[in-house]
Queue: 2 jobs
Job 1
Amino acid sequence: MLYLAKDDPALAELVKNEDNRLETTLNLIAAENHSPQSILEVMGSVFNTKTIEGYPGNRFHAGCINADQVENLAIERGRSLFKAEHVNVQPHSGTSANLAVYFSVLKTGDRILSMSLPHGGHLSHGHSASITSKCFDFSHYKVNPETERIDYDQVRKMAHCLKPRMIVAGASSYPRLIDYEKISGIAKEVSAFFLADMAHLAGLVAANLIPSPVPHSDFVTFTCYKTMMGGRGGVILCREMFGKKIDKAVFPGCQGTSAVNLIAAKALIFKLALEDKFVRAQKSTLANARVMARVLMEKGYHVISGGTDNHQVLIDLTGKGISGKSAEACLESVGIILNRNVVPQDENTPGKVSGIRLGSSAVSARGMGEVQMQKIIDLMDMALMNQKKKAVIKQVKDQVLELCREFPVNGSGSTEK
Ligand code: DSN
């Protein structure tokens, strides 16, 4: 950051502060991860300069000789890693990727069936606040109130009744595996396209630790900065027969120029995902989430669906008399960073919500294991149950800091500087 410090000391200070914040807090945000330093390098590289429109070999600006190779590398590596027929690496984000999928084969106003946001779905799956709901006619399936898992019978009934043109499977807060084969079968029964959004799960799928939606889906979208450990941005995988439509829907349909520096980061993480270090981090992510869920349940917390199959643990705090918002704030004050989250059947106000979501990716990337997960949940519980006791809060804060020092982000191997 030598040049930044000269050009803008205030901003350089903020970068330093953010580095320090990451080092001195425990990151349990399920939508974040620590990336290898080489990812940060390539995202800050001269590829930031290049404007590209179109696709490799068919651009609208000169000087794409290296950018073309970068994009081809990302496409080839993505295709091979996820065993996909066609890959588009240009989406700026997961939402951009989903929008492009909708617009590739649907007409404005067409019906889409997807998961309800309070039950785990994502904004871009037709939430009323998202542009997706202004363009398409969404209906939403929910989880079963008893099992808190997707009710596939309800999905089938809704699909047959509503005859959607597309069904979406995928979630941003759903701790269980999704039966892609089953939902794909339902989509076939009603002649709907099938989109699987694996934004949260791509790293676990890349490491072959959970089932891939690719063989069952017409389209798969994901982002690279969650379990995937890469940089920012989205990716679309699809069957070859939809390749041209997808490419046209991304550019010029939904985007102009894409970010070559981010495409380069995608190429890099698709390479690193084949290495033992990446697979080890993903294995530990899965194991650590299970430990967190178990310990929370032992302490009497309502863990949604009674556990986890992925990197997420979702807790309904209603029984503890704490709102998600106050839990988030209390935990941030002791250095445990996570987000409040709406939960199925949430009766709290949208601002406060009743739950919190924990993710195990970033702490796993730091090298933490079962012992540390137990400790983190102990500390979390101590803080939440003693919010007004200053001495206890201070003690928790000190222990969080101690744990952070023992497992530096810097020394984790994922982010050597
Ligand atoms: N989809 C949002 C989340 O899961 O938190 C951001 O990636």
Job 2
Amino acid sequence: MVIFGASGDLTGRRLVPALFSLYQGNLLPDQYVILGLGRTSLTDDEFRHRMLENIRQFGRKNSVPQKKLQQFATHLRYQQLDSKNTDSYRILKSRLKKIDRQKEAIDNYLFYLATPPQLFAPIAAHLGAQGLQQPSSDSGWRRIIVEKPFGRDHASATELNVQLTAVFAESQIYRIDHYLGKETVQNILAFRFANGIFEPLWNRNYIHHVEITAAEQIGVEDRSGYYDSAGALRDMVQNHLLEIVATIAMEPPVLFEPNAVRNEKVKIMQALAPVQIENVIRGQYIASMIRGENVAGYRQEKDIHPDSQTETFVAMKFQIDNWRWGGVPFYIRTGKRLPTRVTEVVIHFRETPHHLFKYVSGGTTAENQLILRIQPDEGILLKFGMKVPGAGYTIKNVGMDFHYSDLANSELPEAYERLLLDALNGDSTLFARADGVEAAWRFIDPILQAWASDRSIKLYGYPAGSWGPKEASLLFEQSGEDWRYPCSNLTGDDSYCEL
Ligand code: BG6
């Protein structure tokens, strides 16, 4: 495995700890080398030392025997590389040949581009110029993993696809979206397609609307340079949220095989109806107090322009134009500096056609909701109405729930573990395909263009630690409808949240 950008955060915090977990689980092959490449000058030993520190700090928190760490470290190598310099790639090629000759790894190369996006195309071109995209034997393989962001609009994503496919075949390209590696996102597929009881309900006849939230408590942290030129729409919606939408909305594939699954997801991306711009609400967090502490507004964050128009919150309503979903609104929202960290999908079922108990007592009806909690307190909750014991017929909503933490082996693997393993095994089911990425951008582009050209479209301020601009609630069509304001715990009773 050859990691470009090996002196960066992603490699240290996510990739190498994930590779170590795979190693601990005996999931890596017997012979392999992890070769880090970066601008910084480091010896193999210095790189090993850094990576072991990262594993201790960012890896899974179970105890790690020193011997295991040392054994893993013997597989780590480093080479300084100027990613725009041809000579660097010649040196890389001879180093890889040497590793092959010494039988430390066998003609299978997985390239990982953990670099700034402007380097994706040049690196691919240099690899191609050295012939490194082609295995030297019939049994060998070459694959390339590309991190996000994949383009910043439809035109740049299409151009990047052209540049990558000029060197690598589509089947060799693995576009990462780490949400797809989350156990709970994969479980949406199992939930929908391994159970018979939900499918008959999974359509416009029984579902009133679908709501998806990806809330973060953190602010922009130390990523101002990237974030201020991206914003929440590009950073979260175009990729993670639309992938969840596609997983919820797709038709059952005929086979559980990469292209069959991705064909169905791409059809959803292509069926996203053009959004009306008044159905998109954008916001930016402003300074506030959270639990007694002053929290800076987005524009006061380090290296953010004091007049920045970048959105840190997006909420929108749209439709999917196909038979299953015709007329069912999808509501999605994401934001930084919201009250809690939570990602969940809420399926709101239609009410009963006749409210039998409405005039008997209490005037309440049941709210049937199915909540697929992606993180934290991962699990599933089904809400339904029951009769409150005693006189009359007062209906109360109760929840039936499953929490992953109840499982005996409850530690969920990190998304990167699953995705790296799948890429090593040549399984691209959980990776985005060129046509899917382009279709997602085609949906997002008109929003970006409207925001860039129409200054009358408001960017609402919202206090850090709140649920975003109140205008997001106006997206709902009927009075009494609103977003769910979930707690970090998945409970049937959200009237009190420990945030
Ligand atoms: C990344 C975004 O892709 O996903 C970040 O660039 C965001 O801005 C992160 O914080 C959220 O991931 P997770 O796994 O913490 O929900």
